[in-house]
Amino acid sequence: MENKMRKLLGAMMIILSFSGIAQASDDPSVVLKEIADNMISVLDKNKEALKTDDSLADELVRKHLLPKIDTEYFASRTLGSKIWKTLDDNQKASFTEGYISQVIDKYAKGLALYDGQSFEFEAPEFSKKNPTSARVKSEMKQPGEQPFSINYIMSKKSGSWLITNIIVEGTDMRKSYQQQFRPRINEVGIEQFIAELKTPQLSAN
To answer: What pTM did the predictor assign?
Structure first.
């Protein structure tokens, strides 16, 4: 599970870390393709530096990844509506900050996974009930290995397409974290769990 999660976050960060250079589009698959095409040239120039300079990877992820994720939605769905509804605004903000920071801190080295991969994106599948919600299927192709499937769940908010979930090789990112968090929440309670999110002990699990 840990190895799959590393690949999941690595793939996400490789795709999104240079998201600022993509032009706005009504087609979420075009948005992702523009990001991938442009970032490959940047990663080729910085591949070796990213392997050794942890601060560079962390800086790139924090600067370019966060704007492409609907962090509050991501956090609320990971925690679950039953618990989320019991939190006040400060607790919601604290959980979201701690959760997203843990993800970024733990997987910043995902950028170093780039080693000549290419990406192909299918046309988006828009929700029949909500045209501002879509799924984009893609494959990350690696020399000498089987293609790596990545499905992006996206929602258009304030004119921009944002990531609300990622499914890699059948692993749902939000559900995976939910399964990691739930036992500890049941053991110590949500307030203590939120306090622990920023501790090295929890991040190491």
So the answer is: 0.77
